[in-house]
## 1
Amino acid sequence: MPRYPTIEDVIGQTPLVQLQRLPGAAGAARGNVVLGKLEGNNPAGSVKDRPAMSMIRRAEERGDIRPGDTLIEATSGNTGIALAMAAAIRGYRMVLIMPEDLSIERAQTMKAFGAELILTPRSGGMEYARDLAEQMRNDGKGHVLDQFANADNPRIHYETTGPELWQQTQGRITHFVSAMGTTGTITGVSRYLKERNPGVRIVGAQPSEGSRIPGIRKWPEAYLPKIYDASSVDELVLVSQADAEDMARRLAREEGLFAGISAAGACWVALQIAQQVRDATIAFVVCDRGERYLSTGVFPA
């Protein structure tokens, strides 16, 4: 009997595509190439499929969890969806804690995978959700994988996302841009790429003051993810909510790339870089797809 791939088997190996119109004539004249890594092509629809499966499988290997256990996680959306999928595959009860103001599409998708949701006040943000997950763990209500402190998060990007980018660009990548949430993607990819070429520049996208961009965070010092290695990021660029939302609309209309808001923020940063350098190969992470944001009003009805 042939062995057919499972859902787990098709996580990763996502396409890397070149933007054609947004870089404009100036970008082309400078000899720059801007590339988007389509992580929305993963089975649960985002870059978080990689760490979600990694955290569960490696926790199983260590004997920390076993099928039938309850898993608890604070999430702004994509990690929750990915964990809900992974829990469904591996046989876990999944309890997800998320602020009440996040898009309805993401909440509905988590429920579709069988997860249970606890919504927290908008005013408390992700900090309150993280505190509640920790309290539930301390009360013995389940296991917290903790994407913010779990080394299996950046590890999977070191093992898969980084090598894919290197291979897909044939080692030509000069800049890597990623939105920063848990910081797992940027930390793991940076480690791999800089081992291959210390000259690769790693740029993180963070929200400007007052901006609320799903998937991009600037954490207070007390909540800074433990997995984050500041030395792995060469530059932080602030993105406004208006610029990220406008770029999301432009990506869809001018490139046919229907991406989420954090992906658009990373794209905005990549295009800023393309206006400043020459003969560069600039790759950014398209974290997820735009369908998850239709209820937010970012895209025209």
## 2
Amino acid sequence: MINATPFLWIKNAAEAIEFYKKAFGAVEQYRLTEPGGKVAHAEITIGGAKISLAGEYPDYGILGPETLGSTTVGIQLQVEDADKLFQQAIAAGAIVVNPMMDQFYGDRAGSVKDPFGHYWMIYTTIENVSPEEMQKRFLAMFET
């Protein structure tokens, strides 16, 4: 069996955990804290999905988006009410990257950037679209 779990490195992991609780309803499962207070490892769940996170360790080349200036990873949250969670995340301090709107691939989706530099795509499926139809709709966007 293989189980993939996102692992986020964050400059201030303790603050991030509190933000994720407020923005996405995360539940902290546990936290390992160094004597100085730095989060060495923590696990949260959002819905049933597990996400691990820790502070930065520059000596090992482990840096978060704030230090790097960007991230190459986004996390998708499929929820029953994307609009509600999107607004909740914004109220908690997330910045809108793409506004919430109906998408050609059948989802109502939008994306936000959290205060720690990670991107979150929030969506609700509103229409089941076959891969062939998705491709057709995708190509149609280039015809204007």
## 3
Amino acid sequence: MTEAYIVDAVRTPIGKKKGGLADVHPADLGAHVIKALVERTGIDPADVDDVVFGCVDAIGGQAGNIARTAWLAAGYPQHVPGVTVDRQCGSSQQALHFGAQAILSDTADLIVAGGVQNMTQIPISAAMIVGQQYGFDTPFGGSKGWTERYGSDEVSQFKGAEMIAEKWDLSREELEKWALQSHERAKAAIAEGRFENEIVPFGDATVDEGPRETSLEKMASLQTLVEGGRLTAAVASQISDGASAVLLASDEAVKKYDLKPRARIHHLSARGDDPIFMLTAPIPATQYALEKAGLTIDDIDLIEINEAFAPVVLAWIKEIGADPSKVNVNGGAIALGHPLGATGTKLMATLLNELERTGGRYGLLTICEGGGTANATIIERV
């Protein structure tokens, strides 16, 4: 059976809103990580079969198939195609899945998979906002079928996160303790150089800009996002700019081009859950992935679950029974940022490097996504 391998994984430093990457065109951000992959692995870009990139809110500089424009902006051959994927926050993880599936089906040998997002230039939900300005319905408004099934109440990530905190009885203090830990772990990881092998500096941007000095006292002073709620900005992911990419290869490509794989794709899948809760799908996605892979959560050495909001991670830990010491060990999106379309392969780069640093075998990546879906990927270090 053909295997799909990760040969290398890179990312830009993650810029905060209006930070060091704010003025960079999204195509140039994508081109930067693509060029880094080519240079680090020594592949001939002419041998790449496809470029699959994740991106959310594909308007402005992110419109027009950013996978294709990023590849061409890198100066690489025109015969190599590209396709852009939108699975919301899991878009580049899905890009990785599509690329690996092409290799596993024996229809491709070399795939560049990744993602890009400049949230400073193009704010979250920009596509919906522009649509409303032109008088169009939102994805959840105006649909008779949707309204009959789910009603006409607000659908939002903030509402979903609050519902999760309430259902799993997560106190504001618990959420803030997790958020503080995220910052502390991220700062420690930066100080120890744990991200250096995955980050390719972009000009003066050399390190992640998100981690900050904070405390439980500072967090406790913030207003909640929803009146009477438990969540504040301190327990939510940061608005960010960045790009990331991985090179995927088949057995044949590994031999033909003398590549050195770093990990094997052990399992990939996606599942869905209640779209009103929206952010709970990593729970069934993880359960399904472990069952299909014939593993238990105790077999997993390291876990990356995107910190869209602290309750997403804490509810997942409760349901799955995971050891918190294995989860987001270098901090998460609360501290390091969440550049939507780039987050999946960004987290994969971090997971891969940390498995190598610690000598772990299996790593799990899962991300909650708008619409109530989630991807789950299990890799095995080689």
## 4
Amino acid sequence: MPSGWERSEEGASVFYKQADGSSLIQVFTLTGPEPTPYASLEETERAVARNKGYRKLWLTQENAPSAGAAELAYTYVRPDGSVRRVVDRAFTGPDRRQYALLVAGPDDEWTRHQEIFRVLLGSFCPSGYCASSDAQ
């Protein structure tokens, strides 16, 4: 995680947040009734579209429509007037559970957040499915 960010848990989500609240990472399991990651992000988009200044950048689906990963990216205007960009990737893990990995931060600092998102995607694995770093 980025240096200086703080970890917290809220409900079924684990958050990593920058101290000033401008940026965050959220990791959670999808527990709604939607059958696929794409359907979950369609529902997410309906909810976040109510945010002031909402603008969808993309909603994509990979692989087979029934189980492939999906990604939603959008911007919105925060109460302080700044523009926040969000990328939310939903997928089915090796344990057959659906997960979402989300990164949000200031739109004008998105290059740095793209790298955070890339590292998050490359390092996430559900418990029991990670390669052990201390294998003998």
